[in-house]
Write a structure and sequence with these properties.
Number of strands: 17
CATH topology of the largest domain: UDP-N-acetylmuramoyl-L-alanine:D-glutamate ligase
Shape: globular
CATH architecture of the largest domain: 3-Layer(aba) Sandwich
Distance between the termini: 42 Å
Radius of gyration: 23 Å
Largest sheet: 8 strands, mixed
Amino acid sequence: MSALLTSSPVNPDSPNGNASLTEWLDYMQQIHVTAIDMGLSRVLPVAEYLGVVQSAKDDAYVFTVAGTNGKGSTTAVISEMCQAAGYKTALYQSPHLSCFNERVRINGEMVSDQTLIIAFTKVEIARLQCALTLSFFEMTTLAALLIFAEADCDVWVLEVGLGGRLDVVNIIDCDMAVITNIGIDHVDWLGDNVEDIGAEKAGILRNNVPLIFGATDMPNSVQKIITTHSVSCYQVQRDFNYRLLDAQTWQYSNAAVTLQLPRPALSLMNTANALSAVLASPLNIDISAIEHALQTVTLAGRFDYRESKDRCWLFDVAHNEQGVEFLLAQLLPLWQEHLNCQTSNVTTTVSSDNVKTARVKTSTIKMLFSMLGDKDIDKVVQRLTEAGLPITEWFIAEIDYPRAASTEQLQNILAKYVNKSHVHEFSSLSQATQAVINASQPQDLILVCGSFHTIGEALAALEI
């Protein structure tokens, strides 16, 4: 109860609040005893006071997306398709990379600081009226839902933060559920096996609401919940499928349609899940809207290739074993293409095959890396080091986040797989980013991964 006495930014004489967005975010980090607090009992009274649950039920079509990996890409594609079809579309994702506003979008545009401040003020007033404390994620998610309700959005696309059953997003009854996949992650909260984790993620299911299941293996716990709720389940490789036709085109098929579509910038696996959800919904989304969305949808930090500071960068938020496996499946072909490109470039200027070969051999991967301390860092490092990629140096620093792994923790794990002389430690991601630039050549590839926060701090350091 002492957290209720924390000085609030709410000014009774100014209903829109008198604090900046940064001050609000700092305040909300402090008012609850833990950063993660699973359960809906504290959130529901505040949500009901605000009226967001009833608003979603009455006025919007809701897609809720859970899963271990791929939620961001899946929600981005669903949102883009609905928006292209003319629906006023709300998109909620977490966490963000560069600025908090990325989490809350309407028709693809981030909402303003002032819109967030007004919503935070209303949530804070409701919280105090209910005499409850809420975590940062609970407060900010309620604010996003309130913004969507007040904007009278036609479609809400909601990404679950953690698990499903006890996540604050689950206060909203979905009209379409998506579970992208189920892997081992967040074991302290969800369990250490796919049956327990599956049961948590399947907690987003509702009676007679369709489910898109984006993995070929389904835990028994999920199947039981499907049966209990009389859910119509559409599963990849059973009810829908996809395949790449060439560099620009892919094919999607289910029992009703076969579509030849432009290849998106995002994962085909996640795109197929998103398309299945859209096609299974009653929304009027035609082929032209789908094609337009696939040509325009992007998502920062998901196999995100960029050039900056005369260097080649690949940013990926992979932060667990399954995420790294997915990253590697995409990276190995890209690396071969990278080498081929370097060979081609050298051919135009150097005639000696020996010199050409030597030049290609200098093309290496430099790793800019950090993770949260509650992740399975050992598994991630093991997979990255055993993949056969020419990672010659690691540049590490502690993320500026309460749950960050210390550099000592990172060093101890890396020491099991990497020669100590190849690991360089820095006091911040900004310093590590500059160091990897100085230590690399234009023909090298700099891989940045391990956490959303790692990507965000690196992008900030690069000012891109």
